[in-house]
Amino acid sequence: MTETEGLITCISCGELGNGKHCNRCGQAYVVNRITLQSISHEVFHFFTHLDKGFPFTLKKLITSPGAMQREYIAGNRSRHQKPFSMFFICATISALMIYWINMALINYYDAGDQSEAQFFNRYWVLLQIVMLPVYSFITWLFFRRSGYNFAEIIVFQLYIFSVLFLVVASTHLIKFLIPSFQTRYIELPLIILYTMFANIRFFTNEKRGIVIIKGILAIGLNFAIASTVQDFLEKIVN
């Protein structure tokens, strides 16, 4: 921060102004030094002010899956993390978690899968981005009479997979207890349960039984395609 004849130069964009924040970019003119206290305050604020953005959206996706997406598509969007950024953030967190878990198993437990760890570190997020239109198209085919267009189904799937990524990453923690455990045996039931609940609350204009049947078929097909493509790419990459 520098002052010129009563005006303050913004440290971010160089605009001259006065007051507490820059009129051009919104940067605060007075920026406090980062301390342990300021970091602690940010952590506390993150967990106690779940009113918008990523924390709020994640909370709604956990407590009201399906209904949250309906609200977003209907226009209630100001407090929610945008679907593509939510998808990318969760995919990145999950890829890093699975990579770190595998590397910890390799380094400290003489277990884990080096090829899987490298694949998740380098390619998994990109793979999910490429495969998303496939997942969405399959879901749209099964629910094309629901009244939602393909773009709206993509938004629905972006939020669904945001949570499923975190579920998949969390199941890998079981490997610290059973290193040889194949997480797919627990991932699929959890994916089915969560997605079924979301489908029922999203596709409200169809009978629940029909939604469940269609949902199971769509989930099974998506899961089979995702597993096959991932296994194939892991072999090629490694």
The residue ranges in which pLDDT falls below 50 over 5 or more consecutive positions are none
Spatial strand arrangement across the major sheet: 1-2-3
On the 0-100 scale, what is the average pLDDT?
A: 82
Shape: globular
DSSP strand content: under 5%
How many distinct helices?
Answer: 9
Question: How many beta-strand elements?
Answer: 3
* Largest beta-sheet characterization: 3 strands, antiparallel
Distance separating the two termini: 51 Å
Overall tally of structural domains: 1
Oligomerization category of the chains in this entry: single chain
Which short descriptors sum up this protein?
238 residues; mainly alpha; 9 helices; 3% strand
Structural write-up:
The protein is mainly alpha-helical and 238 residues long. It has one domain (50-237). The chain contains 9 helices and 3 strands, in the order βββααααααααα. It has helices at 36-48, 53-63, 67-74, 83-108, 114-122, 124-142, 150-171, 184-202, 208-237, and strands spanning 2-4, 7-9, 16-17. It has a 3-stranded antiparallel β-sheet, with no helix packed on it. It is globular, with a radius of gyration of 22 Å. The mean pLDDT is 82.
Quick summary:
With 238 residues, this protein is mainly alpha-helical.
Helix and strand layout, with pairings?
Elements: E1 2-4, E2 7-9, E3 16-17, H1 36-48, H2 53-63, H3 67-74, H4 83-108, H5 114-122, H6 124-142, H7 150-171, H8 184-202, H9 208-237
Helix pairs in contact: 4-5, 4-6, 4-7, 6-7, 6-9, 7-8, 8-9
